[in-house]
Structures are given as structure tokens and as C-alpha cells.
Write a structure and sequence with these properties.
- The chain is an alpha/beta fold.
- It contains nine helices and seven strands; from the N terminus they run H-H-E-H-E-H-E-H-E-H-E-H-H-E-H-E.
- Strands 3-4-2-5-6-1-7 form a seven-stranded parallel beta sheet, with helices on both faces.
- Strand 3, helix 5 and strand 4 form a beta-alpha-beta unit.
- Bound molecules: adenosine monophosphate.
- The site of adenosine monophosphate has 12 residues, from helix 3.
Length: 217
């Protein structure tokens, strides 16, 4: 996969994001954006679909956490960002980063993963959250039972998208994608982006900004 997006920023303040988001980034301990953050936060904020390929450890999580937090209207207690990850551990890590970086925005985040009480998930959704981070199984379950509603969803993020879009998860993923509103943007992040995945993504993505950060960066 080649890149088709050139615009970059050197510093977080060049993103022109909400002050409380910028405060959260610095309080978390990020001073300067990593390569993937310099490139891929902007298209998310600008409302583009994004396919980003970068190694693990390159700052992918920060990229989509910051991008999606800028899109969220915190005065509206509705699910506006949905992040899917193939493992509970990864979902938990992502949840933590939202909690820290979203601290000053007073963002409400919910972890929807298997192995926790379904009733707790249901109650938390009824009380209202801005962001849901979960694994496809529990998320789809909550969607089918109509506890999770996506009418206000602004972005769907797939982390480790290569795994999520391969056999074990693909049917669940197709079901979830079929339930997002038409204006919702889709962002894929992965360390590898096999051709089959890029081809498959063309079925549900709209003119994505493609960003490839090479290993040596
Ligand atoms: P990730 O690739 O998202 O798993 O991030 C890998 C590690 O890099 C994590 O420990 C992050 O907290 C850290 N990290 C990501 N972005 C930055 C940044 N801009 N400045 C400092 N550390 C960062």
C-alpha cells in the first residue's frame, strides 16, 4: 500500500484542537507527535476515511484517540466513537488511553468486552457514554439487543484491522459495519495491510486517506 496523504504537522498545537484535548495530551506525557501522529491525526479530524499502516509501538493508539476525541461533542452524551480491537487486552489498553487523554474533556468511555457481566454493559450504556471500546463479539451482542445505539456515531475505528477483517471476525465485522450511519467515517489501523484487506476495505470505505509509515521511522 502506498501513501496518498502528504499533509503533516510538527507539533500537537498545529492541529488546532480543543484546549482541553491538548491539555490531556501533554498531561499524559506526549510532547511531540510521533511519525504516524504527525500524518494521520489530521485526516481523521478533517472527516476523511483513513487507512494507516504503522508498526506497533509507533503511537497508533494516540493517533486515533486524539483524532476521535477532537470529533466528539462532549455536551452530547451519545456514542460518537466506536473502537474495535481483536483482543480484550488491547481493548483495555485503548480504553486506558482514552481515559487519560480525555480527562479534561470529561469524556465517558466504556469497555465492552467478553468476560464481564452483560448487565453491567447494559447499565453503562443506558447511563450514556461518548466512546465505546470493545471486541466484536460483545459489541455485536449489545447492538443486536439494542442496548448499543449508533445513530450519533461519527467514527468507527478498527485497530489491528488485518486481524479484525480476517476469517474469525469477518462476519461479525460485516454485521457491525452494516449498522453504522452513512455519515460515519471509518479508520483502519494496522501494522500490516495485506492487499486482500485493502481490497476488502474498498467495499465499505469512501476515498480513504492512505498513510504508510515505514519501519525505520
Ligand atoms: P502504540 O503504538 O500506540 O502502542 O504506542 C507505543 C508507546 O509509545 C506507548 O507507550 C505510548 O504511550 C508511546 N507514545 C505514543 N505516542 C507518543 C508520543 N507522541 N510521545 C511519547 N510517547 C508516545
Amino acid at each position: 500500500m502506498g501513501s496518498n496523504w502528504d499533509e503533516t504537522v510538527e507539533n500537537f498545537d498545529e492541529l488546532n484542537i480543543k484546549t482541553d484535548l491538548l491539555r490531556g495530551i501533554f498531561a499524559y506525557g506526549f510532547d511531540k507527535p510521533s511519525s504516524i501522529q504527525q500524518r494521520a491525526i489530521l485526516p481523521i479530524i478533517k472527516g476523511r476515511d483513513v487507512i494507516a499502516q504503522a508498526q506497533s509501538g509507533s503511537g497508533k493508539t494516540g493517533t486515533f484517540v486524539i483524532g476521535s476525541l477532537e470529533l466528539i461533542d462532549v455536551t452530547k452524551l451519545e456514542v460518537q466513537a466506536l473502537v474495535l480491537a481483536p483482543t480484550r487486552e488491547l481493548a483495555q489498553q485503548i480504553y486506558n488511553v482514552y481515559t487519560y487523554i480525555g480527562e479534561f474533556l470529561k469524556i465517558k468511555v466504556l469497555n465492552l468486552i467478553g468476560g464481564t457481566a452483560v448487565r453491567d454493559s447494559k447499565n453503562a450504556l443506558e447511563n450514556g457514554v461518548h466512546v465505546v471500546v470493545g471486541s466484536p463479539g460483545r459489541v455485536l451482542d449489545m447492538l443486536k439487543k439494542n442496548h448499543l445505539k449508533l445513530a450519533y456515531l461519527k467514527c468507527l475505528i478498527l485497530d489491528e484491522a488485518d486481524d479484525l477483517l480476517s476469517k474469525g471476525f469477518l462476519e461479525n465485522m460485516k454485521d457491525i459495519i452494516s449498522l453504522i450511519p452513512p455519515e460515519c467515517r471509518i479508520n483502519l489501523f494496522s501494522a500490516t495491510m495485506p492487499k486482500e484487506i485493502v481490497n476488502l476495505s474498498s467495499n465499505f470505505m469512501n476515498n480513504p486517506a492512505k498513510i504508510l509509515v515505514k519501519n525505520e521511522e
